[in-house]
Amino acid sequence: MKIVIIEDEKPAREKLKRFIAQYQPQAQVIGELVSVAQVVEWFQDNPTPELVFADIELLDGNVFNAFEQMPRLNCPVIFTTSYDQFWMEAFQGNGIEYLLKPFAYERFTTAWDKYQTLQQNFSPDYQQMLQEIHQQLSNTQKNYKQRLTVKTKHGIYFLDITEVVYLKAEQGVVFAITQDQKRHLLPINTLTQIEHLLNPKQFYRINRSEIVHLRFIDHLEPYTKDSMAIILTHSLGNLISSQSRTSGLKQWLDSL
């Protein structure tokens, strides 16, 4: 069995290779790719593997950018990522499983078991199989946060999600910043704790410490070669996207 690993962090690649060797000693990792450019070039010059393990945020952008440049990726993908907001894009991009880092060996084996089950029960036309999975996911309704709970020494109050311009993490705490530029302390420590509870059509994580609300984006301006300044409405200031998130930000805005 031939496998390709798309992952820009060496420890994560080594972990995957250990898990693969433990679960399927006969499997052969025929490619280790770390960038969008490498992914596109490799798949142009090599035969399609039987399975791909892919991180989402790579050295030079988002792995979905690579997949868009391929005529057809006719093999299943198990995504491994620290971000949980890409699950819909993952299943549009041949994904059959979505492993959130850090994941244990038991979670890895569950994903591989799913691959084997699909392989045994579906025809070799993975595209049809994946379209069916995606259709099922598209029909699933998810309830997202409509208001945030803010705890203070005077009690608890609720903040309507439509009032939040962006969320910001700093020094182990998270604030919701509203139109009046007030900072509301939330009872969480990281953005990851709330990220998956926000509607991905309305909110996007632009860097490690900030999630912006689409409603309050006026326009984008170039900031550096690989980052953008996000100009907010009503003179609320601007935010800066990280290099690793800029490509995904543009793709997010284009998809809305």
List keywords for this structure.
alpha/beta; Rossmann fold; 8 helices
Domain unit count: 2
CATH superfamily annotation of the largest domain: Response regulator
- The succession of helices and strands, N to C, reads EHEHEEEHEHEHHEEEEEHEEEEEH
- Tell me the major beta sheet: 5 strands, parallel
Strand content: 25-35%
Annotated CATH topology of the largest domain = Rossmann fold
CATH architecture classification of the largest domain? 3-Layer(aba) Sandwich
Number of helices: 8
Round the Cα radius of gyration to an integer and report it.
20 Å
Low-pLDDT windows of residues: none
Number of strands: 17
Gross geometry: globular
- In whole angstroms, the N-to-C terminal distance is 39 Å
State the strand order across the main sheet.
2-1-3-6-7
Helical residues, percent: 25-40%
- Output the structural class: alpha/beta
Oligomer state of the chains in this structure? single chain
Mean pLDDT: 85
CATH class of the largest domain: Alpha Beta
